[in-house]
Amino acid sequence: MKKYDKLILDMKNLILISMNSVKNKLMKRYNVLCFKIFGYDFIVDRNFKPWVLEINNNPGLGISSLLLKN
Q: What integer pLDDT is reported at residue 11 of this predicted model?
């Protein structure tokens, strides 16, 4: 497995862990017929280990600059 593939897998596992930790609260709060988008911010250390910096419950999805568009 390439280190980038492992990095993505590790990031997915961190997302699963965090979502599982709050799934009961989310199921009570939100209707099961809708969905919610969360934005995860990660930092990756020199050993390609990802760390969760923050989880946004209302991430910006717009393109606010030419840099983001590219």
A: 98
